[in-house]
Task: inverse folding
């Protein structure tokens, strides 16, 4: 799960234990939209908080917030449309979910999220999954049909 205030913009190649299991499909750097200055979190923050959500130790995390984390999962793909599911959590309880629709041929979105961070995270997530699919590494699934869980795979908490 990623922090809902994270606006990723470029891949972060770091010593992730299981990068393909990260909530956004890989590690990302970017900016924090929780702060008016929109700072770029340091690598340690990116690795322990922004990319993983539930960043309760992060001093920038607003006390009043709609969600602690957001996760994505690949949905059905048919007729050139890929459905990307998202789900928000607040205090480990559901805090909203929905579906975004990606047009595979054009790389555009038929349905976008109203929150720019969530939309951008969805774009990053799909970008990684599409790259993985095109590379089609032997033995590795094209993309995970299951929701990613960092806690399960040891990438952090
Ligand atoms: S974890 Fe903290 S620094 Fe990172 S995006 Fe969230 S609020 Fe900002």
Result:
């Amino acid at each position: 799960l990623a922090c809902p205030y994270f606006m990723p913009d470029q891949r972060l190649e770091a010593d992730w234990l299981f990068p393909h299991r990260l909530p956004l499909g890989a590690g990302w750097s970017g900016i924090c939209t929780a702060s008016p200055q929109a700072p770029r979190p340091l690598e340690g923050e990116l690795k322990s908080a922004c990319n993983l959500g539930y960043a309760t130790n992060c001093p920038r995390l607003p006390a009043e917030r709609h969600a602690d984390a957001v996760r994505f999962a690949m949905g059905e793909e048919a007729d050139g449309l890929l459905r990307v599911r998202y789900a928000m959590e607040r205090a480990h309880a559901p805090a909203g979910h929905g579906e975004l629709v990606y047009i595979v041929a054009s790389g555009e979105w038929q349905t976008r999220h109203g929150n720019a961070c969530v939309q951008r995270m969805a774009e990053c997530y799909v970008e990684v999954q599409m790259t993985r699919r095109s590379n089609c590494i032997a033995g590795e699934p094209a993309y995970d049909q299951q929701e990613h869980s960092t806690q399960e795979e040891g990438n952090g908490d």
Remarks:
- The helical segments are 43-50, 116-135, 150-153.
